[in-house]
Amino acid sequence: MERDSRSQVAKSVLVERIKKENGFVQYPEVKNALAAKVDSSLAKGNWRADSTLKNSKVLFILAGKSYTQADFVDFVEKNSKQRNDKTKDALLNEYYDGFVNSKCLEYEEGTLETKKPEFKNLMKEYKDGILLFELMDKQVWTKAVKDTTGLEAFRKNNEQKYIWQNRAEVEIYNCNDEKICNDAYKLAQKKKSADEIKTKLNKEGAKAHVSTIGGKYEKGQYDVVDKIDWKPGLTPIKKINDSSFQFILVKQIVNPEPKSLKEAKGYIVSDYQEYLEKTWLAELRNKYPVSVDESVFKSLIKK
Q1: Residue 86 sits in the same domain as residue 174
Q2: Structural domain count of the chain
Q3: Are residues 226 and 243 in the same domain?
Q4: Has residue 236 been placed in a domain?
Q5: Is residue 260 part of a domain?
Q6: Claim: this prediction has a pTM higher than 0.85
Q7: Are 135 and 273 members of one domain?
Q8: 83, 170, 220, 224: which one has the fewest Cβ atoms less than 10 Å from its Cβ?
Q9: CA 152 – CA 178 distance, rounded (Å)
Q10: Is residue 206 part of a domain?
């Protein structure tokens, strides 16, 4: 609350300075004549002026520019809200002050670049930064994400960079009962699939059950797989704890092979963005050659 109060005071001081510096002159008689024609609907927030009020009578002048009754009426129609805390006249005065303040601040903002060169430079840097961001987004960042055809072509041209090393394709069986684990192991020895084993052993309502995890893993990806012999076949049943048993079926050892776009998309997108940026910058340099005056450049280097 205190911060809001300080802000309002600072704003009032600023507005008064703008008025003083820019020859602010107002015509109360025009405002009073307008107020006499405004009815109680103003407090309801739905007041609409008749055409006679939207005229060119001048309410005030700021920096040589006239602001008319029509300008103020438009402001009130756009900004008025239902209010029950003030009388009609008090509300109209509040809207008038708001209108004057907004025009003063608009004028000050519009002349900042002229009055303050450092602000002008800052705004130029800001606008240039936005422009550069939009160009980079269009030419590099968004393009790299959405251009699936370009991504796939880039992957194929650089597929040796995105390679799976030797991987073990495994089916990991986890059981919460020793007997059901032994039964699952026997079925696995008979070449039954994981789905067949689970369908046969996982009875509805029974506490004992089998769950499986399947996939291809490089060394270092999954410690459970790292610890087994990498050769096709079944590992012995391992007791994890009193109620958990596990064995693993090694289906095959997969030789090194290129990763698909889906498997390495994050890395490929990042590299493709870098490639697009370098290509774009090279095109710009060819189109807009840059020459450097070495003598001037060296003179800028502090010894």
Answers
A1: no
A2: 3
A3: yes
A4: yes
A5: no
A6: no
A7: yes
A8: 220
A9: 48
A10: yes
19 and 96 in one domain?
yes
In the predicted model, what is the mean pLDDT of residues 262-281?
94
Asked if residues 69 and 30 have their Cβ atoms less than 8 Å apart, the reply is yes
Across 81-85, 87-91, 171-175, 299-303, least confident range: 299-303
Q: Are residues 12 and 95 in the same domain?
A: yes
Domain hosting 51: range is: 2-115
What sign has the CA pseudo-torsion 182, 187, 192, 198? negative
Give the model confidence (pLDDT) of 183-209 as tens digits. Answer: 999 999 999 999 999 999 999 889 999
